[in-house]
């Protein structure tokens, strides 16, 4: 069940035996009670995480005379619904199952916790385009290092050095004891030989230069801030290139999962995390022996779907709506949902009412809204109500920490070239003509960790010559459709409340953020609100049915950022949330324009610029969208959006917005587009 098991030394079996002996040094009184009748126990996972530690778990029960059957491969990302999911069965005498229970669970919980953090960090790196090494450290639990290092491997991280014998790391104490970095490296090299790498911990840029000149293989820049790290690493890299020295640069010291993205710089080769093993939360497992009358059957039903994951109350809409016979337009009645899991999210949200919406036909016409009755028990949602706007603005008010009580943050980023600091508290217009860019991140509707992408916002701000406003919307499994769309709309209302006029706002959507950007513009039209000055769409995900040919034609060419616990094909269901609809019914639902804006009313849109790579799976829907806009513009030429489509040869979803050369090509037309608005 595990390809990583081959890494383990033969001695790990003896380690398991020692741990069992520690737990049962004499009489097993509890085992006496249950006896030796054969039983079946089910291993349940009760929290999200990466399954790791399978060989250790198996070995525990092999020692106790039991067998284990797994329903998940090691390395799988498990996402329980209804509180738990069965992942394995253990068969054997009841006494022997319980003999190994606690040890096996302890190992599995700890190993899976380490693997889960490693996977999250590796996923974040992949999402940001960081190609360097994500590594752990030697800060492991005594006697448990093999398990924790194994968890790193399963999670996709590098183990770094296993022990003092596998690599030389010269830290501050080594250097102080020998008098200098040069002396320490020279002494280490005299005994380590050619096959052992030498790494030097450096507290300054000058330390790094001395380490390089002394012959170090790896330079660790320790406890640098992100800003000082970027400058020092760039200078050190330049020195290495000028001397043709292939020294690796490692960043370490105080880097956490929350701050990791700030250190994922192109100049860095390795980032090491002591937090890979320190204070890492365990994955929750339990082992339950079945009752005689109901032997548990292994099932993974629903693990990777949103079915029954959370409870959402769908309230009936006000009044019934019928479609007049022969009417060409499909009428969508909007109801409302409240109670999104936590008290902090009990806000009004727009929802397609499950009881009121008619079936969507195969051939979809234009949509129109007859009414919208979106009411929360706590806050009435009415855009014409000044008091409500004031309450919403206050709710989303920025403070110094950028963190709001409900878990949102709204970030204003801007470039030093504009004469402003990197973060500014003043979020009102600097002038009556100032334009601001509202950037909407994608992440498959699941990842919305906005603060970690500050480098991108600053680059956009610098290149476009405008401040960038970044709303952090509710994302992930606990916030199904249309929560994210609602948050983007409220962010737009927030800008209006701060004094920006619609014609001063440019919306910029990346990937799934492009879907949210365009859907928000359609929502503005539905609610009869003024639209923005223009919209930039970067690799937009406009059709959740994924029915275009490029999804098949380019599937082997396109690289998509990996979203934890899911695949690209399952994103629509994860985004939409719990539903009892069949695949056919759900496919019909997906053509609603607030889900797939490709099918929306293009007559209501502002000028739009679209960027897409020719090797992207999203290519055809971007082209189709541009064609629809052009055709409508030709036929009517009456307030229809202008469209500019820019395609990039040999670029896939990942490479389109990664790399300095590519970005240098894309920003000039973006700047030109913004300047014409």
From TrEMBL:
InterPro entries registered for this protein in UniProt: AB_hydrolase_3, AB_hydrolase_fold, Aldolase_TIM, NadC, NadC/ModD, Nicotinate_pribotase-like_C, Quinolinate_PRibosylTase_N_sf, Quinolinate_PRibosylTrfase_C
GO BP annotations, alphabetical order: NAD+ biosynthetic process; quinolinate catabolic process
Annotated PANTHER family: NICOTINATE-NUCLEOTIDE PYROPHOSPHORYLASE [CARBOXYLATING] (PTHR32179:SF3)
Biological or metabolic pathway of the protein: Cofactor biosynthesis; NAD(+) biosynthesis; nicotinate D-ribonucleotide from quinolinate: step 1/1
Subunit structure of this chain's protein: Hexamer formed by 3 homodimers.
Top enzyme class: transferase
Domain Quinolinate phosphoribosyl transferase N-terminal: start-end pairs: 36-112
Assigned GO CC terms: cytoplasm
Protein's job: Involved in the catabolism of quinolinic acid (QA).
Species: Coemansia pectinata
Reaction catalysis annotation: nicotinate beta-D-ribonucleotide + CO2 + diphosphate = quinolinate + 5-phospho-alpha-D-ribose 1-diphosphate + 2 H(+)
UniProt keywords, alphabetically: Glycosyltransferase, Pyridine nucleotide biosynthesis, Transferase
Family to which this protein belongs: Belongs to the NadC/ModD family.
Annotated Quinolinate phosphoribosyl transferase C-terminal domain residues: 114-288
SUPFAM superfamilies cross-referenced by the UniProt entry: alpha/beta-Hydrolases (SSF53474), Nicotinate/Quinolinate PRTase C-terminal domain-like (SSF51690), Nicotinate/Quinolinate PRTase N-terminal domain-like (SSF54675)
Domain Alpha/beta hydrolase fold-3: from-to ranges: 437-633
EC code: 2.4.2.19
UniProt name for this protein: Nicotinate-nucleotide pyrophosphorylase [carboxylating]
Keyword Transit peptide: no
MF GO annotations: hydrolase activity; nicotinate-nucleotide diphosphorylase (carboxylating) activity
């Amino acid at each position: 069940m595990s390809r990583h098991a081959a890494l383990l030394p033969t001695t790990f079996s003896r380690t398991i035996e020692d741990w069992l002996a520690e737990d049962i040094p004499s009489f097993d009184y509890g085992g006496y009670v249950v006896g030796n009748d054969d039983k079946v126990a089910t291993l349940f996972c009760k929290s999200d995480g990466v399954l790791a530690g399978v060989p250790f778990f198996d070995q525990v029960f092999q020692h106790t005379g039991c067998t284990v059957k797994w329903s998940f491969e090691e390395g799988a990302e498990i996402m329980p619904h209804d509180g738990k999911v069965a992942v394995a069965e253990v068969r054997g005498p009841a006494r022997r199952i319980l003999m190994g229970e606690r040890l096996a669970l302890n190992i599995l919980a700890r190993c899976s916790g380490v693997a889960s953090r490693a996977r999250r960090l590796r996923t974040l790196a992949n999402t940001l385009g960081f190609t360097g090494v994500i590594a752990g450290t030697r800060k492991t639990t005594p006697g448990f290092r093999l398990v924790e290092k194994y968890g790193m491997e399963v999670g996709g991280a590098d183990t770094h050095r296993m022990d003092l014998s596998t690599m030389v790391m010269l830290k501050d104490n080594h250097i102080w004891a020998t008098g200098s970095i040069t002396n320490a490296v020279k002494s280490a090299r005299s005994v380590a030989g050619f096959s052992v790498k030498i790494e030097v911990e450096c507290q300054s840029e000058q330390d790094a230069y001395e380490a390089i000149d002394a012959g170090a293989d790896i330079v660790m820049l320790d406890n640098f801030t992100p800003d000082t790290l970027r400058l020092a690493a760039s200078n050190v890299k330049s020195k290495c290139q000028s001397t043709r020295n292939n020294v690796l640069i490692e960043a370490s010291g105080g880097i956490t999962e929350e701050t990791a993205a700030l250190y994922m710089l192109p100049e860095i080769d390795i980032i090491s995390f002591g937090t890979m093993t320190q204070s890492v939360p365990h994955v929750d497992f339990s082992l339950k022996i079945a009752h005689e009358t109901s032997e548990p059957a292994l099932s993974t039903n629903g693990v990777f779907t949103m079915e029954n994951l959370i409870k959402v109350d769908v309230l009936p809409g006000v009044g019934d709506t019928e479609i007049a016979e022969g009417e060409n337009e499909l009428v969508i009645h909007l109801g409302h949902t409240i109670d999104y899991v936590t008290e902090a999210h009990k806000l009004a949200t727009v929802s397609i009412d499950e009881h009121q919406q008619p079936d969507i036909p195969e051939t979809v016409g234009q949509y129109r809204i007859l009414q919208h009755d979106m009411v929360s028990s706590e806050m009435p949602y009415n855009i014409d109500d000044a008091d409500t706007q004031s309450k919403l603005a206050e709710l989303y008010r920025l403070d110094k920490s950028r963190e709001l009580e409900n878990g949102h943050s709204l970030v204003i980023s801007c470039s030093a070239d504009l004469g402003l600091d990197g973060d500014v508290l003043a979020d009102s217009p600097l002038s009556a003509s100032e334009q601001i860019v509202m950037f909407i991140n994608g992440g498959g509707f699941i990842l919305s960790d906005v603060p970690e992408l500050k480098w991108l916002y600053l680059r956009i701000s610098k290149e476009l010559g405008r401040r960038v406003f970044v709303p952090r919307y509710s994302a992930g499994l606990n916030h199904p459709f249309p929560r994210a769309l609602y948050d983007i709309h409220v962010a737009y209302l927030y800008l209006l409340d701060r004094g920006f006029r619609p014609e001063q706002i440019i919306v910029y959507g990346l990937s799934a953020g492009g879907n949210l950007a365009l859907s928000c513009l359609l929502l503005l039209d539905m609610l009869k609100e003024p639209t923005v000055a223009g919209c930039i769409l970067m690799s937009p995900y406009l059709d959740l049915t994924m029915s275009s040919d490029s999804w098949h034609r380019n599937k082997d060419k396109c690289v998509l950022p990996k979203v934890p616990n899911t695949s690209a094909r399952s994103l629509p269901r994860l985004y939409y949330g719990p539903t009892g609809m069949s695949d056919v019914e759900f496919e019909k639902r997906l053509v609603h324009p607030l889900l797939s804006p490709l099918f929306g009313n293009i007559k209501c849109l502002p000028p739009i610029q679209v960027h897409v790579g020719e090797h992207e799976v999203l290519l055809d829907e971007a082209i189709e969208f541009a064609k629809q806009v052009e055709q409508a513009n030709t036929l009517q030429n009456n307030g229809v959006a202008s469209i500019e489509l820019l395609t990039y040869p040999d670029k896939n979803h990942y490479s389109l917005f990664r790399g300095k050369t590519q970005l240098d090509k894309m920003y000039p037309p973006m700047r030109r587009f913004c300047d014409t608005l």
